[in-house]
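Example record used in the benchmark description.
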Amino acid sequence: MTTLLSSQALQLETTHGVLFQDLNFTLQVGQRIGLIGHNGSGKSTLLSLLAGQRSANSGGIQMARLCRLQYVEQHLPPALHALSLYNAMLDAIDDMPELHWRVDSLLHELGIDAATAEVPVQSLSGGQHTRLLLGRALLRDPNLLLLDEPSNHLDLPSLLWLEEFLLNWKGAFVLVSHDQRLLNRVTRQSWILRDRQITCFDQPCSEALQSLALADEAAQARRDAEQSEIDRVTASSKRLAIWGSVYDNEKLARKAKTMQRRADRLKEEQTTVTEGQPWTLQLHGKASAANHLLQLENLTVRAMPDLPGLFMLEQFSIRPGNKIALLGANGTGKSSLLRQCWQAILSGEISSQIRWHAAAQIGYYDQSLQQLNSDASLPEALYPFVASSETARTELARKQALISAGFPYHRHQQKVASLSGGERARLLFLALSMASYHLLFLDEPTNHLDMQGKQELTAALAGFAGAFLLVSHDRDLIEQSCQEFWVVQDGHLERWLDAESAYQCLRNKPSPGSELQGHVAGTVKVAEPVINDTELALQRLCELEELLQADLARKPRHQKVQQQVLWREEMSGLNSLLGLD
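Model output (structure tokens):
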């Protein structure tokens, strides 16, 4: 197979030490490689080296003459922000006017219509940014793409589009991503960057990680056996040294030194094992005896108070133990709903639109990470989250927690503002893990997490004793931790009882026999209930009965007569389904 590029003994040092050393690899025509590693392991830096945007301290990169490489960075260059999408595409081939004709056809292939092409780049969504960056690269007809976290911040429809694009791409690519589902679907090889080294597997992500785990187990077993031999030789050396001293025996003393040299040599040659990650993500929840933790009624969701409504909720409630995923395209109002609820809770002003149980402990992870005081030191930033905890609110407890999370003591006076996005995310998760909640609002919690962090978050939420409302586009997290799926689309909200039906809804292709119970933009969307799970059907019937009884208890002029008719129709369908009529 023809080689496109290769590296020999590549090494890079930063102000924090050696990032990687002695990297050796070969990239060949048609390879589809997933570049995997923890946050801070150097994945994006390696791509920038391959793209020629920075230089290594030693070693070299050889690129074949036939290699046509294009780098698709994470963020749009600031110089493009004021341009229209169409002009930003033209900018990519400004030195090649003979290729301008390709822009129109490529925009069509990328699913970008003529109206969107005239929109300023700074007004585009994350998914449109990704399509623009890909389009700029494709205009130069590459046979190798370097893709730096293209799935980051994408909504689910855009993520599904990206997956389809990469599946159909005929050239080679190196994809940096923490989305294991995406990597498994579109890659065939994996490069794992860890402990300043790179390990190459001719397998997709999940299989490669399993192979690496087996290799780690074997390495640990060898190291343990080698350590036993080192301990034995060292003990023998010390014993002989003592005998040589006590009995003034020079021969024994020389033999002791020989054995000690052997022990030192064994230590130098001892099998290396991974340094691993310094912290395991955890969340602590607690059950509540309340009927409802949060109730929303006639709530218009807005991005800002003075802006038009994005959608309206007639009736919405979260009960103890509910694990709900809130899905939809970017800009539909998912994060705005969480933010409105949180701002109301912070103000303490219970209204007819937003009500919560007075005894409920509620936490919030905001995707902008603005909950952390930027001007505070690291221990100070944790205090608001743990002020009510006798064991965690002491400064010593907070400093110990920071050290265990990979923030060494000499960094504790560092300001939050100086942390990277990944470090701020780790600090916020640490703060949330030091308290215990009945209800959590989680707004895109995986944006800055590496693959291991996502797996730990998935496990933490699956075993979470409280309730949560999760905004995410990570399908593994959604499917493995959530039990209900709420889709915001076209200004209304629909409730689905399985993830695949929710995905089909986002694709605008509702699946046959889907399990829909829809609260829709101020009404309840009535569909013939097709619910195979008797327990879920009974649960829905109980919810409808409560809604109806609560509405009938109001004064006649405040009752929703049309709503009551729709509720009764749905209840009648459920009764027929369950054989209760």
